[in-house]
Hints:
Blueprint: H1 5-9, H2 12-31, E1 41-43, H3 45-57, E2 80-82, H4 97-130
Antiparallel strand pairs: 1-2
Helix pairs in contact: 2-3, 2-4
Amino acid sequence: MAISFDNALGIHQHAVEARVKRAEVLANNLANADTPGFKARDVDFQAMMQRAHDSVSGFQMEKTNEAHMDTSPSGSESELLYRVPHQASVDGNTVDAQQEQSRFMRNAMDFQASFQFLNSKFSGLTKAIKGE
């Protein structure tokens, strides 16, 4: 009997991927904290997880005819949103370095938790395969 990794791992693999994407976006914000006119961005983590949940549970829409409207999001840009600044900067930059560092660290902790869940799933699968 074949093992479906989507069924075996559940949403955890998607959570790790989403956390990696968010870390990239937050790191980009921090790298551009002094760039005039740079607009801070973030991902819509809940939307990413909802879409992953729908794909894992089989509740995704399917385009069955070329004349049908495309309902799939256009890549990862659909989750990428602009952040509304707490206080506007004179040069138009919307990055608040302290807030971004805080978000980055929280995301790192959430990544670690998601990774540990995924690791425990793999450990369980390994034990099941070995018959332990």
